[in-house]
């Protein structure tokens, strides 16, 4: 019967015990109470590069490194005599040749009935891979602790920065509100004198038409135009101050958009005629009555049409189209001018932002008109879209919802509904 068969059959033989002792995957030995080796297995001999039986009568402490020998004499054997065991003590064996061999050693004292130690069982497992693992684990733990400390410091720094940013944001908000207040005051105070300058220049020209020289009339005309231009800029600044401070109130009234457009077109006539630009107004189908702030929508139309004329070449037409859907009213302003670079379209609706495109007659641009347009459209619950191609022109589309119209009728039922119409200015 082989040892394995005997083991499977539950038969214990000396051969079985001998195989288990000699070929165990760990070092195993017996010593007397003073630490002298009585018997060591083949694994232990192999670790130390010794022939089987060569370690008998050796002192266990002599098999250890100098530091381990001292530790065994001063700690391990006293601990074994006192408690009768010790577990997993890291030591180093000293082979006859080669480097030291790290091991983890456990021992237990075997006593007789009277409690006197008879011999000791000592088991050793190789500790190379375990030590490497423990060393790596310790390194990883130290790194994790260092990272945790660094993260804690960064968290504290971020918390401090957050508090600082919150304070700065509050301060900027206060400054922004103060800026809007001062801007509104300045614009309001300037509007009166500028309007007076324009009115006085017009009055002088009318009263002195027969006595003024051509040069004087030209100078007065320039003064009137400059005052009107400055008045428009001041009004824009006042609108921006109101917008940024959140003070925008709508005075909604039932409005037929084609009639509102007809009131805007005469104002644009002189501007368009000066550049030889025809303005075409087209109504596509019936138009409903909508509930809007007439003044603010008129301001939207004026800004969009003025921009279209400003950036159009002489002789190229500008189209204004009105149409209605089941849910919206759509106003579209199209020009065939210079167009806007795609990379600059995002700047169009931000206050004080201008693009690289300039008026074809060197008209000034302050970067306020479209910011005001967008705010007015949003206040009505609508949206504004833009499509543009350099060299081909631009299309600005304003969509205003029909929800909240004055009588809730469909476009076909609305009063003043008109068929498709085209008007040229």
How would you sum up this structure, described in words?
The protein is α+β, with helices and mostly antiparallel strands. The protein folds into 3 domains: 3-126, Beta-Lactamase, CATH 3.30.450; 134-243, Helix Hairpins, CATH 1.10.287; 250-424, Histidine kinase-like ATPase, C-terminal domain (Heat Shock Protein 90, 2-Layer Sandwich). The chain is 46% helix and 21% strand. The protein has helices at residues 3-8, 14-22, 42-47, 66-83, 128-207, 214-244, 257-274, 294-310, 369-379, and strands spanning 27-31, 37-40, 85-93, 101-111, 117-126, 252-256, 279-284, 289-293, 318-324, 328-335, 383-389, 393-401, 421-424. The strands form 3 sheets. A 6-stranded mixed beta sheet has the order 11-12-10-9-7-13, with helices on one face. β9 and β10 form a beta hairpin. α6 (214-244) crosses α9. It starts with a helix and ends with a strand. Residues 406-425 have low confidence and may be disordered.
């Amino acid at each position: 019967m082989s040892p394995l068969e005997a083991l499977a059959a539950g038969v214990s033989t000396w051969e079985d015990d001998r195989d288990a002792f000699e070929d165990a995957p760990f070092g195993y030995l017996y010593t007397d109470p003073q630490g002298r080796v009585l018997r060591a297995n083949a694994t232990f001999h192999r670790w130390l590069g010794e022939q089987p039986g060569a370690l008998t009568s050796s002192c266990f402490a002599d098999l250890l490194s100098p530091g381990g020998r001292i530790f065994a004499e001063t700690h391990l054997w006293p601990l074994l005599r006192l408690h009768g065991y010790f577990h997993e003590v890291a030591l180093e064996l000293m082979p006859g040749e080669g480097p030291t061999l790290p091991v983890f050693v456990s021992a237990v004292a075997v006593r007789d009935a009277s409690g006197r130690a008879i011999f000791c069982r000592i088991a050793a497992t190789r500790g190379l891979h375990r030590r490497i693992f423990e060393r790596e684990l310790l390194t990883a733990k130290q790194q994790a602790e260092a990272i945790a400390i660094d993260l804690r410091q960064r968290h504290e720094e971020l918390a401090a920065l957050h508090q600082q940013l919150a304070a700065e944001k509050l301060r900027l908000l206060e400054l922004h509100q103060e800026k809007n207040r001062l801007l509104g005051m300045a614009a309001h105070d300037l509007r009166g004198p500028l309007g007076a300058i324009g009115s006085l220049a017009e009055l002088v020209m009318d009263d002195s038409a027969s006595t003024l020289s051509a040069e004087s009339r030209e100078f007065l005309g320039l003064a009137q135009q400059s005052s009107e231009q400055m008045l428009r800029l001041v009004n824009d600044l006042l609108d921006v101050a109101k917008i940024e401070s959140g003070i925008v109130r709508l005075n909604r009234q039932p409005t037929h958009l084609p009639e509102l457009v007809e009131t805007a077109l005469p104002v644009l006539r002189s501007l368009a005629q000066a550049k030889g630009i025809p303005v075409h107004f087209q109504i596509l189908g019936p138009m409903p009555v909508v509930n809007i702030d007439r003044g603010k929508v008129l301001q939207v139309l004026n800004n969009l049409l003025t921009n279209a004329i400003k950036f159009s070449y002489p002789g190229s037409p500008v189209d204004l189209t009105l149409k209605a859907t089941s849910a919206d009213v759509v106003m579209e302003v199209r020009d065939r001018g210079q167009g806007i670079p795609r990379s600059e379209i995002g700047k169009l609706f931000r206050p004080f932002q201008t693009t690289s495109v300039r008026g074809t007659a060197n008209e000034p641009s302050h970067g306020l008109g479209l910011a005001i347009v967008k705010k007015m459209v949003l206040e009505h619950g609508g949206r504004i879209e833009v499509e543009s191609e350099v060299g081909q022109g631009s299309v600005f589309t304003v969509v205003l919802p029909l929800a909240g119209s004055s009588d809730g009728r469909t476009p076909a039922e609305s009063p003043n509904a008109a068929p498709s119409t085209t008007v040229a200015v």
